[in-house]
Write a structure and sequence with these properties.
heterotrimer, A mainly alpha (109), B mainly alpha (121), C mainly alpha (330), A: mainly alpha, elongated, C: 330 residues, 2 domains, 12 helices, 70% helix, 0% strand
Chain lengths: 109, 121, 330
C-alpha cells in the first residue's frame, strides 16, 4: 500500500512538472496575448495542483498535509482569478494581435 | 577549485556588478533605484550563503526529536539580513517618493534632462 | 549526495538580472523584479534561512513591486534610449567585479562549519538561547532579545521612512466625511464581480495569516516584520479593489499615523520600563519572576510593537503613493 502511494506521488510530481515545463515553452512560442494566457492559466492550476497532490501523498497523515491542502485551495482560487484579470485587461488595453485573432462583438464591449 | 565551493560568491559579485552598472550607466531614476535594489539583494545572498552549514537544518530548535547533536545553520546573519531587507524597502520607498516629486518639479525623470534644466534655468 | 538546486536558482537569478539590465520597458522590469524576489526567497529557503525567506517574499515580491508600479503610474513607462554606449561604466563594473571575485578566492568553502563566521557568538546562541529565552526560533530570540538595540534602530528607520514619505507626498485625497451611507463610490470596479467576490473570500484569511505569523513567530518562521508586511499587503489588496476612499473609512490617515507611533512607543516603552525598574535599557528580566518567562514576555511585546509599526507605515506609504497615481503631466 505504501509503495502504491509513493509511486502515485512520483507520477503526480512528474506529470505536474512536465506540464509546467510545457507551459513555459508555450508562453515562449505562442504569438498572441490570448493564446499565451491559455498556456499559462490552464497549466498554472493543473501543474501546480498536481505537484501539491503528489507532495500530499508523500507526507502521510501527521505531516504538513493540512498546509499543503490550504495551499492547493488557495492556488485553485487565485489562479483562475488571475487569468480573468489578465483577459479583462487585455480586452480593454487591446495589445497587438496576430492576423488570425478575431474578436466577436458582444453586448458589453 | 571546486565549483560548488565558491559558486555562490561569484554569482553574488556578478549580481552586484549588474546592480552597479545599472546604477551608474542608466539615466532613468527609477532604473537607478532598481539597480540599487539588485545591489542590496546580492549582499543578502552573500550573507546567507556564509551562514549555511552543510547538513544542518533551519535555526529553529527541534523539540520533538530524540536525535542529539543536530546541526543548526548560523542564525546571526539571518538577523542581520532581516534588518537589511527592511532598511532596503524603507530607502526604496523614500527614494520613490523623491522621484515622484522630481517628476512633478521637472516634468521628467531622465537624469541628463534634469541636469540640463538645472544648468540652463 | 548533497543537492545543487541552489546553483540552478542562482543561474536563474543571473539571467533575470541580465534581462533587467538590457530592457527599456520599466513595467516589464518591475515584473522581473517580482520574479527576482521569488527566486531570492526560494534560494533563502534552500539555505535554511526561513525567516529571511518569509520577509523577502512579503517585501520583495509584494511591497517593492507595488511601490514601483505606483511610481510608474505617475512617471513614464519607458526609459529613454541612450545616445551612446557607456563604455566607461562597463569597464569600471567589470574591473571592480574582477577584483571582488579575486577577493572571494580567499573565502572558506561554502557550507563548512568552522568558518570564522560560524564560531564565536553563533555557537553560544545555538547552545544557550533555548535555555535562556525559552523560545525555539533562534532568529526571533536573537532579533528581539540578544540584539534588541539593532531592531529598535531598524524600527526607527522604517518610521523615519514613513515620516519622510509623509513630508514629501501629502495625501491628496481628504478623508471622507463620516457618512451613514454604505454606497460605494462609482469609481469602484462594478464590472469586476469576480475580483470582488474572491477578494472578499481571501482578505480575511490574509489578515488572519498575518496575525498567525506575528504570534507564532516564536515557534516557527515569522515575527513582527513579516506579519506587518502581510497585514499591509492584505489591506493594500482591499484598497486596490474597493477604492482608496473606502479603505480610508476603515484606516484613516490619522489612525495610521497614530498606530505607527504606538508600535514604536511599545518597543521603547519596554526599554524604559526596564530603566525605571532599576536595570539596563531593554533588560527584560524585570518583567516577570522567572527568567525565561520574562524573556518570552519581553520578546512578545517588542515583536508586537514591530508588527504594528511596520503594518501602519507600509500601508500609509502605499496610500500616499496611490493617491498620486494620476500621471503628472503639467
Amino acid at each position: 500500500m505504501v509503495e502504491l502511494t509513493y509511486a502515485l506521488s512520483i507520477l503526480c510530481l512528474l506529470v505536474g512538472s512536465i506540464s509546467n515545463l510545457i507551459a513555459g515553452f508555450g508562453i515562449f512560442h505562442f504569438p498572441d496575448v490570448y493564446t499565451r494566457m491559455h498556456a499559462a492559466g490552464i497549466t498554472d492550476s493543473f501543474g501546480t495542483g498536481l505537484i501539491l497532490i503528489g507532495l500530499m501523498l508523500q507526507t502521510g497523515w501527521d505531516g504538513p498535509i493540512g498546509k499543503l491542502l490550504a495551499i492547493l485551495i488557495f492556488t485553485l482560487i487565485t489562479s483562475p482569478t488571475i487569468s480573468y484579470v489578465l483577459a479583462n485587461t487585455a480586452l480593454k488595453e487591446q495589445p497587438p494581435k496576430t492576423a488570425n485573432t478575431t474578436h466577436k462583438k458582444t453586448d458589453e464591449s | 577549485m571546486n565549483v560548488g565551493e565558491s559558486f555562490n560568491y561569484w554569482v553574488v559579485m556578478i549580481l552586484m556588478m549588474n546592480g552597479l552598472y545599472i546604477l551608474i550607466a542608466h539615466g532613468n531614476l527609477i532604473k537607478k533605484i532598481i539597480g540599487l535594489t539588485i545591489f542590496q539583494t546580492s549582499v543578502f545572498i552573500f550573507y546567507i550563503s556564509m551562514a549555511k552549514v552543510t547538513g544542518a537544518i533551519a535555526p529553529i530548535i527541534e523539540q520533538n526529536t530524540e536525535q542529539t547533536n543536530l546541526l543548526y545553520s548560523n542564525p546571526l546573519p539571518h538577523v542581520l539580513i532581516l534588518t537589511a531587507i527592511v532598511v532596503g524597502i524603507s530607502t526604496t520607498a523614500l527614494a520613490l517618493a523623491l522621484v515622484i516629486r522630481i517628476k512633478r518639479a521637472y516634468g521628467t525623470v531622465e537624469e541628463d534632462e534634469i541636469q540640463d534644466m538645472d544648468a540652463h534655468p | 549526495m548533497e543537492s545543487y538546486i541552489h546553483i540552478i536558482i542562482l543561474c536563474f537569478l543571473l539571467l533575470t538580472s541580465f534581462a533587467i539590465v538590457r530592457m527599456r520597458d520599466l513595467f516589464s522590469i518591475v515584473m522581473l523584479m517580482g520574479v527576482y524576489g521569488l527566486l531570492s526567497a526560494s534560494f533563502f529557503v534552500l539555505m535554511d534561512a526561513v525567516d529571511v525567506a518569509l520577509t523577502e517574499a512579503a517585501v520583495g515580491i509584494v511591497i517593492s513591486p507595488l511601490l514601483l508600479l505606483s511610481t510608474l503610474a505617475a512617471t513614464g513607462r519607458y526609459e529613454k534610449k541612450k545616445r551612446q554606449q557607456p563604455f566607461l561604466a562597463l569597464i569600471v563594473a567589470v574591473f571592480t567585479g574582477a577584483l571582488l571575485i579575486y577577493g572571494t578566492l580567499e573565502m572558506p568553502p561554502f557550507g563548512s562549519a568552522d568558518t570564522p563566521a560560524n564560531r564565536h557568538v553563533a555557537s553560544y546562541y545555538i547552545n544557550q538561547s533555548y535555555a535562556e529565552t525559552g523560545i525555539p526560533n533562534l532568529v526571533s530570540s536573537v532579533l528581539a532579545s540578544y540584539r534588541g538595540y539593532d531592531t529598535l534602530g531598524e524600527l526607527f528607520v522604517i518610521f523615519t521612512a514613513g515620516a519622510g514619505v509623509l513630508a514629501l507626498l501629502g495625501l491628496k485625497i481628504k478623508s471622507p466625511k463620516k457618512s451613514r451611507s454604505t454606497v460605494l463610490p462609482p469609481s469602484s470596479m462594478s464590472r469586476h464581480h469576480i475580483l470582488r467576490i474572491v477578494s472578499k473570500m481571501l482578505i480575511p484569511l490574509i489578515l488572519l495569516f498575518g496575525l498567525y505569523v506575528q504570534f507564532h513567530g516564536d515557534f516557527g518562521p515569522g515575527g513582527g516584520f513579516q506579519a506587518g508586511a502581510i497585514f499591509a499587503s492584505g489591506m493594500a489588496l482591499y484598497a486596490m479593489i474597493f477604492g482608496l476612499q473606502t479603505t480610508m473609512r476603515v484606516f484613516s490617515r490619522a489612525w495610521l499615523e497614530f498606530f505607527a507611533a504606538v508600535g514604536l512607543l511599545l518597543y521603547g516603552g519596554t526599554g524604559v520600563v526596564s530603566i525605571l525598574s532599576g536595570k539596563n535599557f531593554l533588560d527584560y528580566s524585570v518583567l516577570s519572576q522567572s527568567p525565561t518567562d520574562a524573556q518570552h514576555l519581553g520578546i512578545l511585546l517588542v515583536e508586537l510593537g514591530v508588527g504594528i509599526t511596520v503594518a501602519s507605515v507600509i500601508l500609509l506609504v502605499f496610500m500616499f503613493f496611490a493617491s498620486h497615481m494620476t500621471k503628472v503631466s503639467e
